[in-house]
Amino acid sequence: MEKEAKRSKIIFNVSNTKYEIIKHVGSNVFGWILSNSPTDSNWDLFWTDNSVIPDRLSRMKPHQKINHFPGMFGIARKNCMANNLNKMRNIFPHDYNFYPKSWVLPSDLNEFKAELQQSSKTYIVKPEASSQGRGIYLVKRLEDLRTHEHCIAQRYLQKPFLIDGLKFDLRIYVLLSACDPLRIFIHEEGLARFATEEYQNPSRGNLDEMFMHLTNYAVNKHNPKFVQNEDPEHCDIGHKRSLSSVLIRLEEEGYDVTTLWDRICDIIIKTICTIQPSLSHFYRSSQPDDVSNGMCFEILGFDIILDHKLRPYLLEVNHSPSFTTDSQLDFKIKERIISEALNIMNIKVKNRREYEMISKTLSSNRIINKKSRQESLEEKKGLRDEATRKNDRHSDKHCGGYIKIFPGENDDYYQQFLEAARELWSDVTAVKQKRQTETARSSTPTAIRPISV
């Protein structure tokens, strides 16, 4: 009886997530069977709070889906994102000017020291792999630099846009439903996280005032002044508010929210363009026979801050944004973000049978001679194109609060960034291959010549 139930329902493996909201959505919203066994391979959907390596994807069955793409570290790690965005800024200085000038330490240490000695600006230093505000501090002079190991330094935005005298940032939720071809959605709802002390321009006397300078919820919730929003029907109070309530307030005060939203969407697309080639490489090399382009998906948390002129700047990208639900507001928003993403991914029991049939068809067409092999490649391309059209039709009908931003009206404009990213990726892989070849040669023992007598 239990086996029959599993055959007729989605099996959702939640053994590697700490978030109760994930389990709630699977069980209570969709009615799926939850599996808590880390060794169980008989699942349709696997949710993990950790990154996914290519080997894990390569071992997945055609009908299975997982909530991360291998290679997302390219924007999820602060140092990697800074490197990738810096490279694109060198090529497109006016198009990639949406993030603070950044230095990756220790490799850029000398350049950053020179910057500190010549400038009176303030800089923020962040550990390259930390989260929730851990290890972050501000510097104005060289002697303020506590460490230069494995961190990034950025120019601090000294004139942020303020609401009620407080600095804040926006957590924008983005769904990447496919990587080749690319499919990007932005959700209409999100969060605004506020600092808990009134903002003052950074000075020698307040550099350590983290409740003033940082907007991280994990930091500010420890301030006795922190006000939790316990009423999801009134999303415009407290130190964590809904994204929509902030946008409504800005619009009521006469600001151009439409242009702001368009700029945020532009930032998201351009950022993901920087890693599309690597995502595609890892995906295709791990699942060369997959035609669905839908075995992986990712809910990303883009952190955006606004300057005093309402221009958005990218602070960081979270590949595992927190789904902790400390308040009813949290619960209401995050339940939507997760459930509507899963609706787009079209996770159904019949997918098992469909993908198994496709897999069998592809296997039967693998013939040794070149002509048949070419026919198989053409057939696979046709199946991929049809799967993409099918996925697009489904997402258009089931997007909920998600809005597709790529592909869209400005595809031709973004193609130049995708092409540049492919060239950069090709250069990186060429260097890696050269190093591997040199390493292999150096490790090969040379023949011992006989000694002449």
Which runs of at least 5 residues are low in confidence (pLDDT < 50)?
366-375, 447-453
Give the number of domains: 3
Query: Whole-number average pLDDT?
Result: 89
Shape descriptor reads globular
CATH superfamily of the largest domain: ATP-grasp fold, B domain
> Care to count the β-strands?
16
Number of helices: 15
CATH architecture of the largest domain: 2-Layer Sandwich
Q: Please indicate the percent range of residues in DSSP E strands (runs of 2 or more).
A: 15-25%
**Terminal CA distance:** 84 Å
What is the CATH C-level name of the largest domain?
Alpha Beta
Q: Main sheet, how many strands, which sense, barrel?
A: 8 strands, antiparallel
**Class by helix and strand content?**
alpha+beta
CATH topology of the largest domain: D-amino Acid Aminotransferase, Chain A, domain 1
Radius of gyration: 24 Å
> Helicity range of the residues?
40-55%
Keywords: ATP-binding, Ligase, Nucleotide-binding
GO molecular function: ATP binding; tubulin binding; tubulin-glutamic acid ligase activity
GO biological process, one term: microtubule cytoskeleton organization
GO cellular component, one term: ciliary basal body
In words, what does this structure look like?
The C terminus is likely disordered. The protein folds into three domains: 49 residues, no CATH class; 307 residues, D-amino Acid Aminotransferase, Chain A, domain 1, CATH 3.30.470.20; 56 residues, Dna Ligase, domain 1 (2-Layer Sandwich), CATH 3.30.1490. The chain is globular and about 70 Å long. The longest helix has 33 residues. Strands 9, 10, 11, 12, 13, 14, 15 and 16 form an eight-stranded antiparallel sheet that branches. It has 453 residues and is an alpha+beta fold. A hairpin with a 2-residue loop joins strand 9 and strand 10. Helix content is 42%, strand content 18%. The chain has 15 helices and 16 strands.
